[in-house]
Design a protein that fits this description.
The protein is built from 6 helices and 13 strands. By secondary structure, it is α+β, with helices and mostly antiparallel strands.
């Protein structure tokens, strides 16, 4: 299924053109195998190495049909059919949702890998004088691209995994100080945050002080003692009317703790615990 420019693999001798079909098949087999393996890891599909090899083989054989003249619409339909065959051979068909997840990630991984390889190849194929770029006639070795491809897919897998772990715990919230005054924050769900008010057992969320645009001196402060591994202290807290957690609902009986230092996390304004998320 992976489209490789055959200009990598032919030599022109006069008006003749020599194409190395066996090399094209092997290279496409390697790329298809890497793509299917990445989809299997990302979606945690329990598939055997035999199925991965068969799926990659079914995709690589399809490269032979590219030498048949086809119009654009027929070529697109042909590629879709080959993709479906690859996925069914590799992951089987359980239901439509299962298949569509496989289908979407097959093309996402293909686009990521293809885009990186295209960028790398072009980076080495062009020279520049100032802002003027011109082709120098060199092509990056396909062996180098094959060696680099697993690294690219591994980095993509790691970043996607980190995204799932971290950003799935991000929530958009609104804090209402009264009926009209409110602030919008980005909260992070910290499952280890068990901080509660020892007096009335209210949950406490922690907010970056710089994000509170209102004068907190107008609120009645509640001092809550807390203890960490390396530090004991007192947290200044106050009560607000309510909090709206997007996609979850309203929360009322809780306290807002003030953090003087900014959070060392990407775009985080507030930390909430699992207890307040559960209501």
């Amino acid at each position: 299924m992976t489209q490789i420019d055959v200009s990598f693999f032919y030599n022109k001798i006069g008006d003749n053109m020599k194409v190395y079909l066996d090399l094209i098949l092997i290279i496409n087999f390697i790329f298809d195998f890497l793509i299917l393996l990445s989809v299997s890891y990302i979606l945690k599909r329990n598939t055997s190495i035999t199925r991965l090899l068969l799926g990659a083989f079914s995709g690589s054989v399809s490269i032979l049909f590219l030498f048949i003249k086809l119009n654009n619409l027929t070529l697109i339909l042909f590629k879709l059919i080959i993709s479906i065959i690859m996925l069914i051979v590799t992951f089987n068909y359980k239901n439509f949702k299962y298949f569509m997840h496989n289908f979407i990630y097959l093309y996402l991984v293909s686009i990521i890998l293809g885009g990186f390889l295209y960028f790398i190849n072009n980076s080495f194929c062009y020279n520049n004088k100032g802002f003027i770029f011109y082709k120098n006639g060199n092509v990056v070795s396909i062996l180098f691209l094959i060696i680099l491809s697993p690294l690219i897919l591994y980095l993509y897998y790691k970043e996607l995994k980190n995204y799932k772990i971290n950003y799935s715990n991000y929530y958009n919230i609104e804090l209402f100080f009264n009926e009209k005054d409110k602030i919008k924050l980005i909260a992070f769900l910290d499952t280890g945050n068990k901080l509660i008010d020892p007096y009335k057992k209210r949950n406490i969320i922690i907010v970056d002080r710089k994000k509170i645009i209102y004068d907190i001196n107008e609120f009645k402060m509640i001092l809550v003692p807390f203890k960490t591994i390396n530090y004991n202290g007192v947290l200044k807290c106050f009560k607000v009317n309510k909090m709206i957690i997007e996609g979850i609902g309203n929360r009322y009986n809780f306290l807002v703790g003030i953090m003087d230092e900014s959070f060392h996390m990407d775009g985080i304004d507030c930390i909430i615990g699992s207890r307040i998320l559960e209501g």
